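Annotated sample (chain length 328).
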Amino acid sequence: MINWGIIGCGDVTEVKSGPAFNKVPNSRLVAVMRRDAEKAADYAKRHNVSKWYSEACQLINDPGVNAIYVATPPLQHEEYTMAALKAGKPVYVEKPMTVNLDAAQRILEAVKENNKVSVAHYRRAQPMYIKIKELLDSQTIGAVKYVNLQCLQPALSPAALQDPAKKWRVDPAVGGGGGLFNDLAPHQLDLMLYFFGPIKTACGISANQAGLYAADDIVTGNIEFGNGVLFSGLWCFTVPEDEGKEVCEIVGSEGKISFSVFGEPMVFITKKGKTSRVQFETLQHVQQPMIERVVQYFLGKGENPSPAENGVEVMRIIDIFTLTNFKS
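Output written by the structure step:
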């Protein structure tokens, strides 16, 4: 039995992940931690969790906890993951794995010392993306040529910037210099790795055009995968209200697959001028399929569904897109 402890029982754990730990076989949530003791106690009461803490070390050292879910903002991911591994406990860590590549590589080195870490790139385990990969592998749209991804959102309002749950996402010290890009793009970029494999080259540019917060608000990036597929992405978080959209188009020699990573769970397949749609069930707890696989991995009954190596590669791409710009 995997007895989970959550470090950072904030918004992401309310529905997306937290309840799933009690809904998959051989798994149960036994303890939670949040620095605000009142909020930790409230979460434990509402979710019927027997123990709560306000210090991470207390949860990590609880003998009744044998696996840790790190769900804090990215700044604390490395610290708490390393502490849990030092205590001999496997870790399921939220995305992005860390705030930068160097920190991610330090976790990977620790994993090599017979430790277990899985990264919450949970879309890999969802039926919709498994289906897309099957379509690609079977060459339903022929040989894939290129991918075009756009993620466009209006700027955060002044009120949103006062919300602690949103404010940290545009604080470079806490979430990374790419701001909302660092928060959202890991899901999209990991899916590209899942679909197309290792990258060959990558380049990108990021900027803070509007100056509304300290983090950059626009990022462009290009990837050449080892199999020859080219990827182009644009993320802008200051577009007009009516220009917001999020779409990924995979174009092959015989057709196109289109979908939204953060929108409705449906896939559009276009061939010879005709488009068909495949609809998928809306998951109550989006992380549940991945958590089920992680539990099996931690029990020694399956492979790691999202290894630390994947998290490192995603951080490598993020850093390439946002940190290596030429400045005249």
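Annotation: The chain has two domains: 2-123+286-305, 127-282.
Annotation: The longest strand covers residues 144-152.
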